[in-house]
Amino acid sequence: MQNSRENLLGRDRRKARSPAAGRGTFGLLAAVCLIPGFTSANAELDAAFERDVLIIAADRFACHRFDIYLAQSDAQQARGLMFVRELGPGAGMLFVYKRDRYLSMWMKNTYISLDMVFARSDGSVASVVSHTEPLSLRSIVAAEPVRYVLELNAGTADRLVIGEQSRLLWRDTHEIGR
What we know:
5 helices, single chain, 22% helix, 30% strand, Jelly Rolls
């Protein structure tokens, strides 16, 4: 996890070109990334998923740190947050796919309402679906081909102004364009 933090800090300094870049974003990112790490009360998720840190550069010149579980394998993506009854306020799950594609999610066996943030390979947010319905079999489809889906507690995207001008900053999202 330390390498991820160092890579994020080093690369972000050279690549940041968002409107917030000239307003101390790097310093804010550095401060946020250095906050002590992940805490969890869910031993089952801890055993099944790798953990990491993700930063969201939000629409209104703010950055937010999340402790995330990584759903990278087919089995992890099929399980996701099913059967989870509580997710910490600064926690989420990042679904990582090998390439951009139209993704469809559902809430089968998911007991908590979520916000789903669909992001392109470069981390830019394509769309956000807020307040998903727990236990629903309805498909939640990305508006365009994406590589990442970030699931957060319902209401988080609205509260933190995470929208289509936002960007996910994670170890793979800032590799594009190198």
